[in-house]
Amino acid sequence: MLGTSLIFLSICLPAIFAQGNIPYGPPSNTQLGQAPQVIPSAPCQPGFYGPNCAQRMPGNRYCGGQFREYNQMTGLCIYGCQWAGQQPPYCDRECYDGKFGFNCNFDQPRGKCSGLGQFGTYNKVDGKCTVGCARPGYLPPDCVTVRVCEYGKYGINCNEQFYERVCNGNGHFGEYDFTNGACTKGCVHPGKQAPFCKYDCGNGKFGWNCQHDIPKGRCAGPFPYGNYDKVSGHCYSCKSHGKKLPNCTYDCDEGEFGQNCQLRLPIGEKRCSGYGMYGDYDKKTGNCKHCAQPGFKLPSCNQMCDDGTFGLNCKLKLKLKKCSGHMRFGEYDPATGNCRGNCLEPGLKYPECDQACENGWYGAHCQSKLGPGTCGGQEIGNYDKKTGHCRTCGRFGFKPPLCTEPCEAGFFGLHCLNNVKHKCSGNDTSATGHCTTSCQYPGFEFPWCENECEDGKFGLNCTEKLGEKKCSGAGKYGDYNKATGECLQSCEKFNLQFPLCEKEKCSNNDFNRTNGRCSVSCAAPGFIFPDCGKECDHGAFGLNCLQNITTKKCAGSAPFGDYDPATGNCQGDCFLPGFKKPECDKECDNGTYGLHCASQLGPRICGGQGLGNYDKKTGQCRSCARSGYKLPTCTEPCDVGFFGLDCKRNFTSNKKCSDDDYDRVTGYCNTSCQIPGFEFPACDLECEEGEYGLNCKEQLNKKKCSGPGDFGYYNKSNGECLNSCEKLGLQFPLCEKACDDGFYGLNCQGKISNKCSNNAYDLITGYCNTTCRNSEFQFPGCERACEEGEFGPYCEHQHREKKCSGGGDFGEYNKANGECVQSCEDAGVQFPLCEKECQAGKFGLNCNESLPSGVCEGKTEFGDYDKATGDCKSGCKVNGMQPPKCIIEIKNK
Q: Which of 49, 63, 663, 798 could form a disulfide with 77 if both were Cys (CB 3.0 to 4.6 A apart)?
């Protein structure tokens, strides 16, 4: 054998060198691309290289090839490495990161394996991940095959599971992605957010997979979208009144109104004008635009007009109280304004009660009639239409006011004013009974003063004389008043003014000679044209009585008071304060007010130019000159809750400022807001984003609440979140402290059992941080045990064959570390892992047996033997021993 090898080396070596195929020399250009090397003149012994073959190959360098060829000058492997996972050409270290396999020819994908670095932790021999997959849903250790979890489970190592159906599709749990639990065909129930279908739709969304939008401001409730059904989008309550549920887009049906159309107009009672059973009304409030019947007031049209108003929508007003009754304007029909009971005063026509009785009538409702010739004056005469009392009797010797009864004994003359006992002025009488100086009463002859003046005379002591006949009646001078000279019935001539009958009644003395009526105009104001002998009717005045008094301006019992029919000026007081006498139709000059403008306004306190804008009747201001003071006096500060000019502005809440301490001019609080969550000093606007608390002095440092914006939805009063925390693992509603022990997830709603060692778990996911308390459960979920054949963290590792004793396909082993519990299944491997061969000198089940040294033939101390049985493989080392055990001598035959 040795000779043959020498012959081969001497004959074949030069040819091999020439071809470049050198078993122990340098490689050719096809051998890893190395350049030819200078080689020793004779090949080195195996395991040596370099000049004079002085260097020994490292013990951990294993070159590939049929003869483990390496370069005898450099020691580099020519045909690569013997084992996979070694980096050529030295083959004494593992492949670089990102490489694996024989000669590290295979690339490892990034993000495939979990662990440190871009490529994670993996086996450099076969590229398999050793601590699990980096992506959920992939099957370790290859981590290239999507792991199809048991139906109903998903996630990393299938730790998560469904407890109810949330996904659409076939099967009890629907169709979903085994990697993350996302539903592949949407949610099975409307109102859930796709793809995970666990949580309700967010604000503004509803329906299948939350694909539908709901408009802002449709539903009542907080936030822009209010409270509504996330399944159907139906509002629980409409934000706008006058809209009907559930969609809140259609107006209320006829007869309905208010929020959610819950209120109803009375059936059969049409309050509002317009078409239909209920007329035209506001669906928000139920208020009418116009009332159907007069006498009812807007907007509800179910209440009668306020006192003093009447007619359709109560737009007409009573100027004076004309009807009897305890109310300010008495009892009247709110539809027509007519009195329901009696007129307030007699002398007025019923039921209007605003026009005087016709001539000849008087009393309540003008039901009494006056006799002819009773009262003095033309035609029916001058009398009070309330009582029928004459203002002047038409005949001497009758006593007023009725002028129908004769004078009492001892009295005589017109109106029975003359007393026979008091006929002399100052009771100055002589012994004979005649007066010494003058009569007491006009119309009587001096000195006896008992007989009326002779015909043609009148006045005191009958000293006045009539020049000619001016009064109608018998005699030379007609019927006239012997006291005043005034005519009692009428003037003798048509063109003279009654009762004096001295001045012409017609202008330019232009009158009809047949009937005495004026042709153009009365000569003096205050008389009715064309007769011009009778004073103006009540309510008229001026020349020919062409001017009318529209409102009562003079005091007096008559509808328009007591006034001069010639000028229209009041004869007594003004009817209302605030007007100048005698006209009583012009307001007081600035600075004065009250009856006849007799009162003076004090220092300027009313707003407006000059002395300000105020009520000339009462002196009360219509507007204050200074803000912060209340009407009408403008001297008292605003009531609590009000501020500004005339105190017209008010707070939405009377308690916006602490201790009600605020500036009555601006409405700003002086010290602090009453309620937290509002900006100081106005205290009527919510805090700006990121601020909260009393006077908005507190600030959020970062976003802790869910919702849009930099800070999400939170309570401006106390800083608490309204919906949920922005991050998982924080306690709701403050969202600042970590979850208490045993809780995790959103708002700490997830509850965790005692599953993690040292109770150390992730507050966000609920996964254990280090190991499971029960080593046989899958990490990090730690909620279910590893399946048969699986072990280790995440249950990532698998037994490929049965190596442990016990029942089942993989025997009895520790699912935490894969170690066998009782014994190895096969002899010759080390317990408890049962993977490596027994150490030298050991064999049998669990390597419990020991082999004496020097028994078996071989290069080592214990030779070459079977680790399972202890049998020597290459024979006995000591001659004469019986193989294969080699511990029993061979007996000579």
A: 63
Contact (Cβ atoms closer than 8 angstroms) between residue 813 and residue 820: yes
- The predicted pLDDT at position 892 comes to 45
Task: Report yes or no: 527 and 499 within 8 Å, Cβ to Cβ.
Answer: no
**Contact residues for 340 (Cβ-Cβ < 8 A; gap 6+):** 323, 325, 331, 332, 333, 351
DSSP E strands in 678-768: the ranges are 691-692, 698-699, 743-744, 750-751
State phi, psi for 17 to the nearest 5 degrees.
-60, -40
Residue among 388, 406, 387 nearest 396 (CA) = 406
Residue 350 tokens read as 């019923």
How distant, in Å, are the alpha carbons of 238, 412, 486, 487, 673 from that of 397?
Answer: 87, 5, 17, 16, 87
- CB within 8 Å of 613: residues ≥ 6 apart: 606, 607, 621, 622, 623
Encoding tokens for residue 841?
A: 């000198």
Could you give phi then psi for residue 570, rounded to 5 degrees? -75, 140
For the chain, the C-alpha Rg in angstroms (whole number) is 63
Which of these, 673, 624, 634, 666, lies nearest to 649 by C-alpha position? 666
The neighbouring-strand residues paired with 100 are 106
- Report residues of the chain scoring pLDDT below 50: 1-41, 892-893
Contact 368, 360 (CB under 8 A): no
What span, in angstroms and rounded, lies between the C-alpha atoms of 50 and 71?
A: 9
What pLDDT is recorded for position 6? Answer: 31
Q: What is the pLDDT of residue 542?
A: 92
Contact 154, 180 (CB under 8 A): yes
At CA 363, angle to CA 357 and CA 367, rounded to 5? 75
**Count of beta carbons in the 10 Å neighbourhood of residue 414:** 26
Mind listing the pLDDT tens digit for each residue in 456-502? 899 999 999 888 888 888 888 888 888 888 888 778 777 787 778 88
**Is cis: bond before 136, omega within 30 of 0?**
no
Q: How far is CA 94 from the centre of its chain?
A: 68
pLDDT for res 378: 61
Q: Which residue has the tokens 């129930």?
A: 189
Helix (H), strand (E) at residue 875: none
Q: What residues have CB less than 8 Å from 97, skipping those under 6 apart? A: 108, 117, 118, 119
Nearest CA among 4, 44, 2 for reference residue 22: 44
Please state, in angstroms and as integers, the Cα–Cα distance from residue 718 to each residue in 676, 698, 727, 774, following that order.
7, 9, 19, 43
Within a 10 A sphere around the Cβ of 512, how many other Cβ atoms?
13
Contacts of residue 774, Cβ cutoff 8 Å, sequence gap at least 6: 755, 782, 785
**What percent of the chain is helix, strand and coil (3-state, nearest 5)?**
10, 20, 70
How far apart are the C-alpha atoms of 141 and 133, rounded to whole Å?
7
- Looking at the chain, how many residues does it have? 893
pLDDT of residue 60: 66
473: left (phi over 0), alpha (psi -120 to 50) or beta: left
The residue among 784, 775, 741, 751 whose CA lies nearest residue 156 is 784
Q: Which residues pair with 704 in a beta bridge?
A: none
With 0-12 / 13-18 / 19 or more C-beta atoms within 10 angstroms meaning exposed / middle / buried, residue 130 is middle
The span from the first CA to the last CA of the chain, in angstroms, equals 35
92 Cβ contact list (under 8 Å, min separation 6): 58, 60, 61, 86
| DSSP code per residue over 449-460 | --SBPPTTEESG
Does the pTM surpass 0.85? The reply is no
Q: Residue by residue, what is the 3-state secondary structure of 385-441?
A: CCCCCECCECCCCEECCCCCEECCCCEECHHHCEEHHHCEHHHCECCCCCECCCECC
Structure tokens at 790: 């699986």
